[in-house]
UniProtKB/TrEMBL annotation:
Keyword Nucleotide-binding: yes
The protein's name: ABC transporter ATP-binding protein
Sequence ranges assigned to domain ABC transporter in this UniProt record: 3-232
InterPro entries noted in UniProt: AAA+_ATPase (IPR003593), ABC_transporter-like_ATP-bd (IPR003439), ABC_transporter-like_CS (IPR017871), P-loop_NTPase (IPR027417)
Entry-linked Gene3D superfamilies: P-loop containing nucleotide triphosphate hydrolases (3.40.50.300)
UniProt KW keywords: ATP-binding, Nucleotide-binding, Translocase, Transport
SMART domains: AAA
Source organism superkingdom: Bacteria
Function: Part of the ABC transporter complex HmuTUV involved in hemin import. Responsible for energy coupling to the transport system.
Homology family: Belongs to the ABC transporter superfamily.
GO molecular function per UniProt: ATP binding; ATP hydrolysis activity
PANTHER family according to UniProt: HEMIN IMPORT ATP-BINDING PROTEIN HMUV
Keyword Cytoplasm: no
Length: 260
């Protein structure tokens, strides 16, 4: 599966929140979508899902638009984990995860749903109602629901935002494993250390535009990070894997000095 966005523009309230953005994501790849608050990351994900209309541009999945794929088939093509997902009814965890099987015909706790629960470490919570869960537990349940679709494309908006370090590492390992199994995975991330360690490529957005696209080492270099985030970073490697730590805030003069 190849997800291709070309010249994408999204408007909200008359403002361009995504501007002339083009990128491809291939099956087998974990792409980290990073950038400061308000950069347009969520708007791009919603556009890829077909939830926000395009003001311009084109989005295709293996060369076909969502309209060409068809509503039912598209539900099996793409799984979406929204930011700050909510569960409005007092359902059991097992019932919530089973909803991920709806695109395949029925919300049933089949083998795919059970695999997703095990992968997200929520099987012990199966009979608990959602109102009894912590924020981190609820986040993992919603991830399990998305994984239960077993779609070739997975879009996850801040999947580790509410998680403790153990479960944040677990979820990133799971997203990478999902990609290695053949899916095209895009994850919005604010943790640059996790982004550097787990993602194959990073797309850095700033003010609605694509500011940088490449390997973590390329994108998380001092100059692009300073320009987008207004921070300086410390970087290194462990076991051959790069890591980046935001270290200090920069004022306008500092950012000018770090520009190429």
């Amino acid at each position: 599966m190849i997800v291709a966005a070309s010249g994408v523009e999204v408007r909200r309230g008359g403002a361009r929140v995504v501007r002339d953005l083009s990128l491809d994501v291939r099956g087998g790849e974990l792409l980290g979508l990073i950038g400061p608050n308000g950069a347009g990351k969520t708007s791009l994900l919603r556009a890829l899902c077909g939830l926000d209309p395009l003001a311009a541009g084109h989005i295709a999945f293996d060369g076909r638009t969502p309209a060409e794929i068809g509503r039912a088939a598209f539900g099996r093509t793409l799984a979406y984990l929204p930011q700050n997902g909510r569960i409005h009814w007092p359902m059991t965890v097992a019932d919530v995860v089973a909803l991920g099987r709806l695109p395949h015909g029925a919300a049933v706790l089949d083998d795919a749903a059970r695999r997703a629960m095990a992968a997200a470490d929520v099987t012990p919570l199966a009979h608990r109602t959602t109102g009894t869960l912590s924020g981190g537990e609820r986040a993992r349940v919603l991830l399990a629901r998305a994984l239960a679709v077993e779609a070739p494309v997975l879009l996850a908006d801040e999947p580790v935002a509410a998680l403790d370090p153990y479960h944040a590492l677990q979820v990133m390992e799971l997203l990478r494993a999902t990609a290695r199994a053949g899916a095209a995975v895009v994850a919005v991330l604010h943790d640059l250390t996790l982004a550097a360690r787990f993602c194959d490529r990073l797309a850095l957005m700033d003010r609605g535009a694509l500011a940088a696209l490449g390997t973590p080492v390329e994108v998380l270099a001092p100059a692009p990070v300073a320009a987008a985030y207004r921070v300086a970073v410390e970087s290194g490697t462990r076991d051959g894997v790069p890591f980046v730590i935001p270290w200090s805030r920069l004022d306008r003069t500092d950012r000018t000095e770090q520009s190429p």
